[in-house]
Amino acid sequence: MFSESFTGEPPPMGSLLGKVLKVTWIDARTWANCWVVEDEIEQFYLREIVSRGCVIKETQEAIYLMQSESEDEYSNLIGIPKGCIKDIKEIHD
User: Fold this and answer.
1) Under a CB-based contact definition with an 8 Å cutoff, are residues 10 and 37 in contact?
2) C-alpha closest to that of 23 among 74, 58, 60, 65
3) Could you give the CA distance from residue 17 to residue 67 in angstroms, rounded to a whole number?
4) pLDDT, mean over the chain
5) Angstrom distance (rounded) from CA 23 to CA 63
6) Mean of the pLDDT values across residues 61-85?
7) What is the mean pLDDT of residues 79-83?
8) Closest CA relative to residue 61, chosen from 85, 39, 44
9) In the CATH hierarchy, which fold is given to the domain comprising 1-28+46-93?
10) Residue of 9, 10, 2, 85 lying closest to 49 (CA atoms)
11) Is the pLDDT score of 7 beyond 90?
12) For the segment 23-62, what is each residue's pLDDT rounded down to a tens digit?
């Protein structure tokens, strides 16, 4: 399931495999190893991230992008939970 703030119509399951995409998504953040007072919490925010790559796997929960490939290996992989995705655009050469 895609984020409630997803723009447009979510693509059908399996339709993204092999496509080169620009994915806009909201990343989780942590503020570990620090003490904060309650007023400082108001300044916390999540970041919008843009990732680009070819879809090599898709599940109900996530899509997996790779940036580079060789004859039999992939590099720079990222799995993005669909619940964090705000927008998907296909990149055309």
Assistant:
1) no
2) 65
3) 14
4) 87
5) 10
6) 92
7) 93
8) 85
9) SH3 type barrels. (2.30.30)
10) 85
11) no
12) 999 998 887 778 888 888 888 888 999 999 999 999 989 9
Q: What's the CA gap between 9 and 1, in Å, rounded?
A: 12
Strands 47-58 and 62-69: antiparallel
Q: What is the DSSP string of the chain?
A: ---TT--SPPPPTTTTTT-EEEEEEEEP---TT----HHHHTT--PEEEEEEEEEEEE-SSEEEEEEEE-SS-EEEEEEEEGGGEEEEEE---
Q: What is the DSSP letter of 9?
A: P
31: β partners: none
pLDDT attached to residue 57:
94
* Measured CA distances, 87 to 36, 43, 57 (Å): 33, 25, 18
Give the pLDDT score at 8. 67
Structural domain boundaries of the chain? 1-28+46-93
